[in-house]
From TrEMBL:
InterPro entries: THOC6, WD40/YVTN_repeat-like_dom_sf, WD40_repeat_dom_sf, WD40_rpt. PANTHER family: THO COMPLEX SUBUNIT 6 HOMOLOG. It comes from Hyalella azteca. This is THO complex subunit 6 homolog. One of its GO terms (cellular component) is transcription export complex. GO terms for biological process: mRNA export from nucleus.
Length: 341
């Protein structure tokens, strides 16, 4: 049975806490897989791992009756999104490696049940300056919640279909993307209408009509740059002017973009992109130059997580029962199993 389950395993999201030595992965079974990665953070002089590499999760926490679609990290919490709710898990509790751990808090999504049922939370972003969690929701809205009180602070309502992802920019900026093909740039001090709309499918170098106009992923860096992709090819835009700067891989006509993000939010030093063609992960510069091509076990990559607190660590996950681990942005070191022994 475990072999059959592993064949149909999908990881949708991940989060790191190098301070606590943990990697988390949210899967299609509603579980949070908790990996002890302390040994990966004990590096030799040449950058290699000094101890024995982990092989699989230490515990699998039952987080939801629905898939765990999204995850984001704050210093104290890992926040997960499923269908209809957010949950905050203390890193200190998860570090105990107890499968019976409970969330420190939950927030029920305030959606229109009559029209949308229970909307899923497709993406999450955390603003450390304002302590707000932003959720990209299946009822065409993006919502901002105060993490301390759980109170709904703002609702961004301008998409014409479900919202795939949301990203923060500075203290008051938010960017959302959706199935309607629009990337909306918001100033949350005046949230009634977006300050800018970018439609990647209208760019000749990005448009791929056979795949559609949907935008699956969006991210920002340095308050100045934006990267996005989906049906259109991945592209880098200047956040203030909305101008296209570079086109990124995968650039063929048949591969939807599932990941397009900066490895660091404070600077646009490097970008990772991936799709559903078995081509792995491309690491690119801001100008679009490919600096590394990393293989991935997952044929369809849904999640790339990168952290740099103590050392460089990047993990790549999606369909299948393995998570790839990279100790820098140039090569894949090994892979972890998603099956609990």
């Amino acid at each position: 049975m475990e072999i059959i389950r592993s064949l149909y395993s999908t990881v949708y999201c991940q989060a790191h806490s190098q301070a606590n030595g943990l990697l988390l992965a949210g899967n299609n079974e509603g579980k949070i897989l908790v990996y002890n990665i302390e040994c990966l953070l004990e590096r030799e002089e040449g950058g290699g791992v000094s101890g024995e590499r982990p092989e699989g999760p230490s515990v699998a926490v039952n987080a939801s009756l629905h898939p765990v679609y999204s995850m984001v990290s704050s210093p104290a919490f890992a926040i997960t999104g499923s269908s209809g709710s957010l949950a905050g898990w203390r890193w200190s509790d998860l570090k105990e490696l107890d499968e019976a751990v409970s969330p420190a808090w939950t927030i029920a999504l305030q959606g229109d049940q009559s029209n949308f049922g229970t909307p899923e939370i497709n993406g999450l972003s955390y603003n450390a300056e304002s302590n707000l969690i932003w959720a990209a929701c299946g009822d065409w809205k993006a919502r901002g919640y105060d993490m301390e009180t759980g109170r709904l602070i703002s609702t961004l309502d301008a998409h014409k279909d479900y919202v795939h992802q949301v990203a923060v920019s500075g203290s008051s900026g938010v960017v959302s993307c959706g199935e309607d093909g629009a990337v909306l740039v918001w100033d949350c001090r005046a949230p009634r209408v977006p300050v800018m709309t970018i439609v990647p499918s209208q760019q000749t170098s990005l448009a791929r009509p056979n795949l559609g106009k949907f935008v699956r992923c969006v991210d920002t860096a340095g308050g100045e740059w934006l990267v996005c992709g989906g049906g259109p090819s991945a592209g880098v835009f200047h956040l203030r002017s909305g101008g296209l700067v570079a086109t990124l891989p995968p650039s063929d006509a048949l591969t939807p973009v599932t990941v397009a993000q900066f490895t660091r939010q404070d600077q646009a030093s490097s970008i990772v992109t991936a799709g559903c063609d078995g081509g792995g992960v491309s690491v690119c510069s801001l100008s679009g130059q490919v600096t590394a091509q990393l293989p991935a076990v997952a044929r369809c990559v849904y999640s790339v997580a990168a952290s740099f607190d103590k050392h460089t660590l990047m993990s790549v996950a999606g369909t299948g029962s393995r998570i790839d681990i990279c100790l820098n942005l140039s090569y894949r070191d090994h892979s972890l199993s998603t099956v609990l022994d």
